[in-house]
Structure formats: structure tokens, C-alpha cells
Specification:
This protein is α+β, with helices and mostly antiparallel strands and about 350 residues long. It is about 35% helix and about 30% strand. It is built from eight helices and 16 strands. The longest helix has 29 residues. The protein starts with a strand and ends in a 16-residue tail after the last helix. The model has no long low-confidence stretch (mean pLDDT about 85).
């Protein structure tokens, strides 16, 4: 689903009506000349992304070992060797740890992680809508956390509803009637009645950053390298930037005849992504503390800030490009260029 427009609201929630409180409105038409007419973003179901990636891997003739789980890593001057749960051993010049926040590769490479849990859990569900969403995404910043309505195909939307953990777990365990009663109070009726379709999922929220992005013959990507709060939806963008930067670094090194697993090569990737990753993670953490509270002084300050950005065209357009992952030192793949 193409999201051509989005709105961020600092108070009240969808049920309070669209015209109340401070708000920030993004419209893709404002940056069409910089984004080649692309929308602000695409809302894709994870199962479809996974299926597409699996098909691309298969079509490229890449060997896949699945199911399989890495249980140990050994590194020497010439290669990295991973040992699988079934006893097999695989060796290569480089191993990439991209297996999530509990990465075995990260721990075995001696890379620590810093982070903390938030007292919040995201309630995620697909909802059917009575009226067309017109491709517009909405996010409301409420005391319990952000409440996002993200358009999908047809009259459907992905709901990301953040609440204090105990309340979120109660929502997941609630009867369908009780869940829909709470949903109606949050969602309101500006898109007509909304009803959950399928299962309701909960995801505890936390921040986690690897202390380093590389070690001899090992590099980290995705949640193994960084896990951030979803308040601004930047986790996937961060992962794509990292994957593209690592690919470009390795391809360039291979063309020069360098050892792609050497720390000298991998440090180029780490330097490239270290600052952007740390700054984005810090920004997301600051957003959580600024927007997920009921302090009247902070509420007023954030509301005035959003209203000011909404009125200043250059600032608004800069935020749109940043939200779409279009600013900074982008790798060639993210600029649409071949390696």
C-alpha cells in the first residue's frame, strides 16, 4: 500500500477528532521533485516481504540451509567457522550476524550490547475499516505511547497501539467484544467502524545497541546491531541502510583484491554506519520520553514544536525526507545505483 500522506497529532487521539490539538501534516506532493514522484512510504505486510525475499534468493541460486541454528563461532586468521545445532560446520571469509537481538554471532564475536526496556508494549493488529483511508497514515501521540493507523490495501489498516505493558497484555487477553470497545474509544469513527481481522499480537519494546558493528571476520546487521523504539517507524530504514552499506563496502573491497573479512575492511562499514545509527537511536529514545507522557509542560512544548514545523515549509520537507530515509550519506543501492 502506498502512503502518500501522513499526519502526526500530539494530543487527543483519533477518537478526539481530526481537527483538535497540535498536528503535523506530511504530503508526498511537496517533495515529489526530490523523490521522483514516489509516495512517502509503502506499507507492506511482513509475510509478503519474506516471501519476496525468499523468491529472490531462490532465483539467484543461493544455497539455503533451513531450518538451521548457529550455536558457536570460531575465528582464526583465515576464516570464520560457524557450528550448527545439528553438528555441521561452515567456513567462510566473513560471517554476518543478522539473527536478531539475541544474536549468537554478536556474543561469540565478543561484542557487547547496551540498552534498556521501555515500560511499554505494542499491540499490533490488522483492522477492517468502514470507510476508505485514502492512503493516509495517522499517528497520535498519547500518554501511554503512540497510536498509529497505517493504511493497507483495500479498506484495511495496520494498527500499532502502544500502551503500558500491563494494559497491553490485558488487551491481548480480552474478549473480542471488550477489545473492540477499547479500540472504538481510541480509534474514533472518522474512518467508520474498525474491527480487528485475525490475531492480535503484542511486542514488548526496548532499546538495544551493539557496542561495535564489526569484529575480525564478523559484521552485524539489523536487530543484531540495533533495536530501536518504533515510534517513528525507522527500524526497517536503519536495517536497509546497514545492509546496503555493508554490501557496497564488501564489493568495493573484493574488486581491490582485499580480504573482505579483515577488520580493516569491516571498520569502513562500521565507521560509515556508527554515527547515523547512534544518532537515530538517541533521537528515537528522546521522542519516547517527550511524547509518551502526560506532563502538561512537555505536552505544550511538543505541540508548539509540531505546529511550528508544520508552518515552516523547508523544515517540514526536511522531516519528510528524513522519515523516508532519504537524507545522509546513502549507499549506492539506496540511491538506485548498481554496485
Amino acid at each position: 500500500m502506498r502512503s502518500s500522506s501522513s499526519g502526526c497529532h500530539s494530543a487527543g487521539g483519533a477518537a478526539a477528532g481530526r481537527g483538535r490539538g497540535f498536528h503535523l501534516h506530511f504530503d508526498a506532493a511537496e517533495i515529489a521533485d526530490r523523490a521522483d514522484g514516489e509516495p512517502l512510504g509503502y506499507m507492506l505486510e511482513n509475510r509478503l516481504i519474506r516471501a519476496g525475499l525468499a523468491a529472490a534468493v531462490r532465483d539467484a541460486g543461493i544455497q539455503v540451509l533451513a531450518p538451521a541454528r548457529v550455536v558457536a563461532l570460531e575465528v582464526d586468521a583465515r576464516a570464520a567457522t560457524v557450528r550448527l545445532e545439528d553438528g555441521r560446520a561452515l567456513s567462510a571469509a566473513l560471517v554476518v550476524g543478522a539473527e536478531g537481538r539475541g544474536s549468537v554471532i554478536r556474543r561469540a564475536a565478543g561484542i557487547g550490547a547496551v540498552g534498556w526496556d521501555y515500560p511499554q508494549t505494542a499491540v499490533v493488529a490488522t483492522v477492517g475499516l468502514e470507510r476508505d483511508h485514502a492512503g493516509v497514515a495517522h499517528e497520535y501521540f498519547l500518554p501511554g505511547g503512540p497510536f498509529a493507523i497505517l493504511p493497507l490495501t483495500g479498506r484495511r489498516a495496520s494498527l500499532v497501539w502502544t500502551e503500558p505493558t500491563a494494559r497491553a497484555e490485558a488487551l491481548k487477553a480480552a474478549s473480542p467484544d471488550a477489545f473492540h470497545a477499547h479500540l472504538a474509544r481510541r480509534f474514533g469513527d472518522f474512518l467508520g467502524a474498525a474491527h480487528a481481522q485475525g490475531a492480535v499480537f503484542t511486542y514488548p519494546l526496548s532499546m538495544q545497541l551493539a557496542e561495535r558493528l564489526a569484529a575480525p571476520r564478523a559484521a552485524l546487521l539489523g536487530d543484531a546491531a540495533h533495536g530501536v523504539h518504533p515510534i517513528a517507524g525507522q527500524g526497517l530504514n536503519l536495517g536497509l541502510k546497514g545492509a546496503a552499506a555493508l554490501a557496497e563496502t564488501l564489493v568495493d573491497a573484493a574488486r581491490l583484491g582485499e580480504d573482505i573479512g579483515s577488520l580493516a575492511v569491516l571498520e569502513r562499514y562500521a565507521r560509515w554506519r556508527r554515527f547515523d545509527t547512534a544518532m537515530l537511536a538517541a533521537g528515537m529514545d528522546a521522542f519516547v520520553h517527550l511524547f509518551s507522557n502526560a506532563n502538561p509542560v512537555l505536552r505544550l512544548a511538543r505541540g508548539l514544536g509540531m505546529a511550528a514545523v508544520n508552518r515552516i515549509g523547508p523544515a517540514r520537507r526536511m522531516f519528510m525526507q528524513e522519515a523516508g530515509g532519504g537524507l545522509g550519506d546513502l549507499p549506492r543501492l539506496l540511491r538506485g545505483e548498481a554496485l
